[in-house]
Amino acid sequence: MKPVAVLTEDNYQVLEVWYPYLRLREEAMAAVFVGTGKKHYKSKEGYPVEEERSIQEVKPQDFSGVIIPGGYAPDILRRHQEVVDFVKGVFDGHKLVASICHGGWVLVSAGVLKNKRATGFFSIKDDLVNAGALYEDKEVVVDDNLVTSRNPYDLPAFCRETIKFLSRSK
Q1: What is the CATH number of the domain that holds 143?
Q2: Whole-prediction pTM value?
Q3: Range of 63's domain?
Q4: Active-site residue, selected from the candidate residues 40, 80, 94, 102
């Protein structure tokens, strides 16, 4: 199985980056921190993560999927066309696209939500709906290759569905 990209940028939500990253590794699935080229990023609380690959050097076909954590990082991530194109390419390749909390902003920018069931942090509900999503207020929503959740409290369900999807794709 190819690795899963875990997108990262400054002001990421620490649990939403590290919990899925470690859960995938626990399941013997490779996870790779993919950033925008700065090498080092800090969470909202200052917790560091080091970029393993930059978005400029990755291609959708090299990955089994992508995880888009929340915090304020998604607002920075979606300003990079390479990130938007990467997420769209993974989605169009029918590979895992898993987004939690404010990660839905990247989905909006990638244009992948039209007629898709999805959830996200309540404050971006209007953004998701305006992008064509069929919003559901649930801990996890799975629609084909799209897995979405609302907040850190939903991480167990989010990771369970993410791992289930990846296990079927092996």
Answers
A1: 3.40.50.880
A2: 0.97
A3: 4-169
A4: 102
Q: How deeply is 61 buried, as exposed, middle or buried, from its count of CB atoms within 10 A (0-12, 13-18, 19+)?
A: exposed
| DSSP helix/strand/coil, 132 | coil
pLDDT in tens, 34-69: 999 999 999 989 999 999 999 999 999 999 999 999
Distance CA 58, CA 42 (A): 22
Which amino acid, residue 43?
Answer: S
Structurally, how many domains does the chain consist of?
1
Helix axis angle for 14-26 and 155-169, nearest 10°, is: 40
What pLDDT was estimated at residue 17? 98
Task: Reply yes or no on whether 80 is catalytic.
Answer: no
The pLDDT, as a whole number, for residue 170 is 67
φ/ψ of 127, rounded to 5, equals -60, -45
What pLDDT, on the 0 to 100 scale, is given for residue 169?
Answer: 79
